[in-house]
User: Fold this.
Amino acid sequence: MVQHPIYRFVSDACVVQADPAWYNTPLFPSDILNAMNQLEQLKQFTTVVADTGDFQSIKAYTPRDATTNPSLILKAVKKPEYRPLLEQAVRDFPNLSTGDVIDRLLINFGVEILKIIPGRVSTEIDARLSFDTEANVAKGRELIALYEAAGISRERVLIKIASTWEGIRAAEILERDGIRCNMTLLFALPQAIACAEAGAQLISPFVGRIYDWYKKSTGLEYTGADDPGVQSVKRIYNYYRRFGYQTEVMGASFRNTSQILELAGCDLLTIAPDLLQQLADTDAPVERKLGAATGVTVDKVSIDEKTFRFMMNEDAMATEKLAEGIRAFCADSGKLKQMIAGMR
Assistant:
């Protein structure tokens, strides 16, 4: 295929991306980026992921990947158009526990999403297993087996696991099995370092929840580069680049487009439909904020279990948000179980 001097063609994903070598050249920003809306511009620097279980939203914004969690699936099945997926899972598996039916529901959603996107879907392990390495490993293998039985290769699935010490150890084992993991509920650098050292495929630092904690704690409003959630992701991104870790960084849990735009250039950003629409409705210039970590001075940290637990204990925000996130996902899983029990 003949390559355009500015664009390169990515045939396996059937998309066109701007060649990074042409960013910040006289040819690129003025006559190309300015003709795009902010979502289109962002896609030149970052892989955009849809943070939703809503198929129509995924179709509308053409992301490469998609992420789901119990809260998003609960929200989706409350809509009439997605109720049949829940009904199918309940009908097809009358003898399974409600927890196992939820797993089938997650697979049903994942399979349908993968018919729309060219890349990967993230499917989350029950948050009740967050402190059980063996149970996480067993559940991860089970979910991948269900996907493969449905004709989906494991390369198109990321298993989401909470970034507890036990969850990270589970990811280390699963990655050796060729099961790729998305480490979720990540709020601090020690979690990110431990995930990278375990060989996790991807981490999801929660920008918005970090912002929420600091806003509540200080009473201050944070914007742009001053946002603590943005600063956390930049710190992790630069640490990975400085020490050559291959784990992908995917910013998540955004509260506004300012947070997203401050992380343009991050490996991936998973974005809710309402914020995707706001980006699509705006044509203001988008500037790449993250790239090679040149000139970044940072000391390498060695993380063992004792160091991990102590560093987490010293970080009130990370400790509180991790616990809160696990509780919230457990609560929404509980609501799904109640819906299933009521249908039997």
Observations:
- Residues 1-35 form one domain.
- Strands lie at 7-10, 15-18, 47-51, 65-67, 121-124, 157-162, 181-186, 202-205, 248-251, 268-271.
- The radius of gyration is 20 Å.
